[in-house]
Amino acid sequence: MHRAFVRSKTLISVASNRISSSGPTSLNPWQPLYLYRQKQQEASHSSSCNSGNTPFGSPTRVQKLIASQSDPLLAKEIFDLASRQPKFRHTYSSYLILLLKLGRSKHFSLLDDLLRRLKFDSHPITPTLFTYLIKVYAEADLPDKALNSFYTILHFNCKPLPKHLNRILEVLVSHRNFIRPAFYLFKDAHRYGVEPDTKSYNILMRAFCLNGDISVAYSLFNKMFKRDLVPDIESYRILMQALCRKSQVNGAVDLLEDMLNKGFVPDSLTYTTLLNSLCRKKKLREAYKLLCRMKVKGCNPDIVHYNTVILGFCREGRAHDACKVITDMRANGCLPNLVSYRTLVSGLCDMGMLDEASKYVEEMLSIDFSPHFAVVHALVKGFCNVGRVEDACGVLTKALEHGEAPHLDTWMAIMPVICEVDDDGKISGALEEVLKIEIKGHTRIVDVGIGLENYLIRKIRARSRA
Predict the structure, then answer these.
(1) Where does each PPR repeat begin and end (predicted)?
(2) Quick one: 348 and 385 in the same domain?
(3) What is the mean pLDDT of residues 311-316?
(4) 378 with 427, same domain?
(5) What's this model's pTM, rounded to 2 decimal places?
(6) Do both 350 and 378 map to the same domain?
């Protein structure tokens, strides 16, 4: 009761707004709490006391009062004070509200006491109670209590629902050491009147796949058919992702064919997973065929699918094939994005296809895509390596005009070449065009000052000789 005196001011303040304010139970909001308690005792012996009412008002009023408290312990005190009134009975909603407040503040011993009181209060129990209870334990990350909540449902003579089972399974499998208890609960659930559904199987399959037990996941997948449950797209995707992680891409392709034969339309994520795996296994021909089949099978390829295949070709030195993918995607109404261009230009530069790369850079700039400094560097370095310094300066100029600051390495690549080959001043015009562009501080051209100084000294000496 000491806590009641500590919070007396708050308690009296909220009670001052009660509905019932007449007769011997009326309360002046500025009275000390001990007077309030005295009036409670007087009211309990008064024959005029109305059934179901307290100094706070009706059970509905108490419910609202409990719901309005931010302090869960104060809400519990109000609940307890009201409970001690003669013939008072809390609403079922009051129990639910207080359960959430105590659970979210992690007062689990008080929560357990509240559940015991509810069990003997003869309220009709609804599944909402257990939905709240599981939610509380999930938020608190307490898998053991979430597991026990399943059996708490049974103690209340209430039949668990599949959604309760699935939520408990999700909480359990999020902890690796609770995967087996989750599996045992899953196997025994039918004994307690709840049948696992497709989502239940998917939860367990995903957990075992992530744990490396693909064989167990496959066994669960096959049991669905025996129990007249139909796997969904997610069921197939879980197994395909697991096979791809194990580099068993052929098995994933077989699963895709099984999906298609059974009339399923794989979603975008399923195709992304498989395309990425095929490209990483260097099965680029199969990846390209799958990309072409997607639209026929009811899933239109998007930019992610195209970029996955473009990256796969460029990574294997087949940028010319990646150019075909760019053409295909345009024909299919999907426009290349910045990632598409950057990947392709880098791949073309790596293959020495500089003119093609320069063409795609110009295309990027024409639609206001800014080339990444790595793309600029690759193209500038490529032109410098084959002695095409004027073309390198042209790329540098365009990059600066579009606000893309060349990297220090880019300046370091171009300046020595200019200093070596510009004995007769042929390159001076191109470089001067570059230097006319407003150079921001972060271009760090000052860091190549030695090379620039040598170039300028040579230019001055050439002019003095002339």
Answers:
(1) 197-231, 232-266, 267-301, 302-336, 337-371
(2) no
(3) 94
(4) yes
(5) 0.73
(6) no
On the question of pLDDT at 423 being above 60, the answer is no
CA nearest neighbour of 57 among 82, 79, 77 = 82
Query: pLDDT category, 172, cuts 50, 70, 90?
Result: very high
| Alpha helix positions (H), 33-173 | 33-45, 59-67, 72-83, 92-104, 108-119, 127-139, 143-155, 162-173
The token duo for 372 is 């990444």
- In order, the DSSP letters of 179-192 are HHHHHHHHHHGGGG
Q: Are 210 and 174 in contact (CB under 8 A)?
A: no
Nearest-angstrom CA–CA distance, 416 and 93: 80
Helix, coil or strand: residue 376: helix
Q: Could you count the other beta carbons within 10 Å of the beta carbon of residue 393?
A: 24
CB burial readout 180-208, b (16+ within 10 A) else e: ebbbebbeebeeeebebebbbbbbbbbbb
Residues 27 and 31: their CA atoms lie apart, in Å, by 7
Does residue 349 sit in the same domain as residue 376? no
If one counts the domains in the chain, the total is 3
**Computed over its alpha carbons, how large is the radius of gyration of the chain?**
37
Same domain for 396 and 334? no
Q: Is-contact 183 153, C-beta < 8 A? A: no
Q: What are the backbone angles phi and psi of residue 54, rounded to the nearest 5°?
A: -130, 175
In a domain, 34, yes or no: yes
Report yes or no: 140 and 173 within 8 Å, Cβ to Cβ: no
